[in-house]
Amino acid sequence: MTEINGLPAASGGLTASTFHVPVFGYFLRQADAYFCVSFKIMTMEYSKSYIVKDEHIDVQGIMDGLYYPFYMEWCRHDFIRDVLGFDFETEAKNGVYMVLSSYSLHFLRSLKKGDEFTVTCSVYRDRIGMPKLHFKQAILLNNKAMAKAVFSGTCVPASGGRPYLPESVLVRLQDFSVLED
């Protein structure tokens, strides 16, 4: 598997052209020496292409609003597996459930039968350090936004307990941007 900055790059999902790593830094003076301290903040956009299925069209000839979150979920789950290394089936067998805690979805334009569209997904850390992942997603047709959403989630033990993020996910998130309001 191809890697970009130590993160696996899915074939067709993550490309170098959609991988952005701004670098920030400053100098510290200690005694008679200067040290450069730098850190990076990543924003990664993952994308998948789909075609509107006939059975997702309503009586008005447009895609039923019920299906927009499903397409976003399919893309998000692939992103979580390919980039964050979290496999839902394996982790569930190990007693770790990744669940949604909230989402907001804004419909901008309607998709129609046969439209070939792209779903994008970017992950963000929580602004106040809560054990949450935030995913900004969009559905694009010819580079025009048809719908935009933010999905937030966390992990919970299958046996019950407090929300948390597994160490394997935290390590991959450490350089990612924080979701701003």
Automatic annotation (TrEMBL):
InterPro entries recorded: HotDog_dom_sf (IPR029069)
Lineage: superkingdom: Bacteria
Gene3D superfamilies named in the record: Hotdog Thioesterase
UniProt-recorded name of the protein: Acyl-CoA thioester hydrolase
Species of provenance: Mucilaginibacter gynuensis
